[in-house]
From TrEMBL:
The keyword Transmembrane applies. InterPro entries: Aur1/Ipt1 (IPR026841), IPC_Synthase-Related (IPR052185), PAP2/HPO_sf (IPR036938). The lineage of its organism: Bacteria, Bacillati, Actinomycetota, Actinomycetes, Kitasatosporales. Residues 1-23 are annotated as: Disordered. It is a multi-pass membrane protein. This is Phosphatase PAP2 family protein. Gene3D superfamilies: Phosphatidic acid phosphatase type 2/haloperoxidase (1.20.144.10).
Length: 351
């Protein structure tokens, strides 16, 4: 009688490897979201520019910046879990900047009259009898017909609303230590300028000219923007000055921020970056004087404020690092150094 052979048992299956045939692949959905993240963001950004025009109000810039960071978190595969660090670190920053913008607008209503004569006299001395704003505009500017350098000056001026925020976003992703340093300098410098605006309100050159105390001057940046044909470009001044303060000229924060970047990044920068760090404040200074936005002494004051803030905060940080801890050990010891120190102390006690 032939013996029937039983079928061979199926090979063992590792736990967790089998999936129901109808189970959805969630990874495919996440991959699609990752692929669509940046196209969706850029589509929304282009639509905003096409319908609303360029808006450089701080709150609008921050919203688009936070949107870019959230998009980057989604694109990197972190999903919604990556949103929490962005919101945790950036919403307080946005709140502080918005509060400053609001206070800056209120700062325009001081009980004392704005100052303009000391700045004018100082610029006349520097210009050998005539301000450099008047000299440069008469030599270079053609009303209603911008030249290439007018567009370049406009780009440099508008970079004030973007450069620091973009650098903060880059450092937030690459180096939290540098992010905190730049943020501390930015906040300290900004509120130091605001305190000065309250104590010493000052008119810019274009406003002094409107009052008849200077020859007629043009706001080159805003007139150039009006001739560019961009959507709602005429509303840029209004959008960018939602909490405007026309007498917030001394010191010039437009000149202070580029100088802040120079002093902050110079110690670790290479030759090419150092050239850019020097060129940016100089280009901004020329733009501000040429465009009748600030007197030269406003710019020098801005550079001075930046140097004091950056070097002062660096000195405080170095002093805190050198301060001994309560245990008598330097606070900046590494964990390995601390472990070696404890081993040495224990061996000395045992001996």
């Amino acid at each position: 009688m032939t013996k029937l052979l039983s079928p061979a048992p199926p090979p063992p299956v590792r736990a967790g490897r089998l999936r129901p045939a109808t189970a959805p692949d969630h990874r495919t959905g996440l991959s699609r979201l990752r692929l669509l993240a940046w196209p969706a963001y850029l589509t929304g950004f282009v639509w905003f520019l096409a319908t609303q025009g360029m808006a450089f109000a701080n709150d609008v810039v921050f919203l688009w910046l936070i949107g870019a960071l959230l998009t980057a978190a989604l694109h990197s595969g972190h999903g919604p879990r990556g949103f929490l660090p962005v919101l945790r670190d950036w919403i307080p920053v946005m709140a502080v900047v918005w509060v400053y913008s609001l206070l800056r607008g209120y700062g325009a209503h001081t009980p004392w009259a704005p100052h303009w004569l000391p700045q004018l006299r100082a610029d006349e001395v520097l210009g050998l009898g005539e301000t450099w704003t008047v000299r440069i505009q008469h030599a270079l500017y053609t009303p209603g017909s911008p030249h290439w350098y007018d567009y370049a000056a406009t780009a440099v001026y508008l970079s004030h609303f973007l450069v620091v925020f973009v650098l903060l976003a880059v450092l937030w992703r690459r180096s939290h230590q540098r992010f905190r340093q730049l943020l501390a300098c930015y906040f300290t410098l900004t509120f130091a300028g605001f305190a000065t605006y309250l104590l010493y309100p000052a008119d810019p050159p274009w406003l002094v000219a409107q009052q008849g105390n200077l020859p007629p001057l043009h706001r080159v940046v805003w007139e150039t923007i009006s001739t560019m044909g961009l959507p709602q470009a005429d509303s840029l001044l209004e959008n960018g000055s939602q909490f405007a303060n026309d007498v917030a000229a001394m010191p010039s924060l437009h000149s202070a921020y580029p100088a802040m970047l120079l002093f902050l990044f110079w110690p670790t920068a290479g030759p090419r970056l150092r050239a850019l760090l020097v060129a940016y404040p100089l280009a901004m200074a020329f733009t501000l004087v040429y465009g009748a936005e600030h007197f030269i002494v406003d710019i020098l004051a801005g550079w001075t404020y930046a140097a004091v803030v950056v070097l002062g905060l660096r000195w405080l940080r170095d002093r805190r690092a050198d301060r001994p801890s309560p245990s008598g050990l330097n606070a900046h010891y590494t964990p390995d150094a601390l472990a070696a120190e404890f081993r040495r102390l224990r061996e000395s006690v045992e001996d």
